Amino acid sequence: MKWMSNKVVYFHNIDNKERVRRLLTSLGSSFNFISIGELEKFYYEKKDLKNSVHITFDDGDLSFYRNVFPFVKSMGIPVSLFVSPLIASTRKNFWFQEIKGYDREIIKKIMVEQKYFKEGTVEHFSINVLLKSLQYGDISRIIQMYQRRTGTPPKKPRNMSVDQLMEINESELVNIGAHTLNHPILMNETDSNLHKEIVQSIDQLSKLLGNNVRSFAYPNGFWGLDFHKREMEVLSKTDIRLAFSTELRNISRSDNLYAIPRFSVNQNNYKTFKVKLALGRKWILLKELRSKTTVKKERLKLKKHIDSI
Fold this sequence. Notes:
- The protein has 15 helices and eight strands.
- The protein is an alpha/beta fold.
- It has two domains: 7-92 and 160-280, Glycoside hydrolase/deacetylase (TIM Barrel, Alpha-Beta Barrel); 96-150.
- Strands 1, 2, 3, 4, 5 and 8 form a six-stranded parallel β-sheet that branches.
């Protein structure tokens, strides 16, 4: 099946080399792979694209280096990778990686004790939804308290090292862009923290790689929940040429260059992904009709609840 449209898609971790081969081979049978440079020309120079796709990966999980990079290198597939220079340098994990497997009830108890939320609130929302309503500094403190209380040590590094990023960068097939320092929900942060998360991530990554970083992906990427005009204004004063959201639709020349849409990929269900690609925004309506709740809905519900207090 051919979709006569242009898209950007994004993955996170892919834990199996065979899945990489299957997913990218299937995409390649329906689309023309394009580089970030060709995508820039589409927006800035009005270059025509036909049935093209740009592949992106968020976070810099080790699975990219182990499973994805060897395949795209052997096949000559250009992709973009969005990472944190701080995470690569310190070999720490992102907060959502660190809490995986934690006892949710203990985290909720800490949240109530520290007066982040009332008991009635934590009972009705998931841990991820609750944490995504807080500033990064608060999330970090909650994790530290949990580790002290339960004697839980920090997890082993889940993301790529500086040396691995340098090796990938030298391949010239992978465009490496910024993804903040700590993966916060940017709209929750103060102006000064926002500036640090965006600008320092770009500057530090540029110095680490030895080249100007010109692309950026918002953590989570929902307009109105994760980023808004303030965040886009900060990016507009940097060297960033293209910034990516997670809005589900095809790309077009009318896109805001600091809010380019992307389709997510379910690595375990490519048939579902094919339907999503074909339906575009209609997929959201279909999913909402079939499901009583989504993560985005839950986050909006919590935000409304907090604003009403």
